[in-house]
Amino acid sequence: MQPTQRYKLIALDSDEKTLREIAETVSPNFETIRVRNPQLALNLCEDEPLVRVLVTEHVVHPQTGQSLLEVVRLRYPSIRRVMLTTYADLAVIVAGLHTGAFQYLAHKPIQRGELLAAVGQPASVGIYARTSGGSRLSA
Known about the structure:
Layout: E1 8-12, H1 16-26, E2 31-35, H2 38-47, E3 51-57, E4 59-60, E5 63-64, H3 65-75, E6 80-85, H4 90-99, E7 104-107, H5 112-119, H6 122-125, E8 128-130, E9 136-138
Parallel strand pairs: 1-2, 1-3, 3-6, 6-7
Antiparallel strand pairs: 4-5, 8-9
């Protein structure tokens, strides 16, 4: 019997403690890939067919989390996009929601229930098939 593959969540943050909290919170539902580099996160969206969720903080040098999520929205619209933010980032929140860069919001410090609601359950995130060109389609 072949082992069951778990859906993956990419967590992008500069703080190791936050990455660990995200991984611990979602571990029953997702395998977490922890990264600190936005380009690596984008490459993983392309290369890992089981990625279903990307969680990023706003400040991810050399770009912003919002700009990364906008690229992911255009290239991989089926990946659920979650922005981690502080309440001080209100202008970022409003702009990101208006452009559709992210669909869900979670505040820092991490609140377990809020993060779980934002990332969803694997079944609610959907089952996708990789097609040529890197796009994903509902199965």
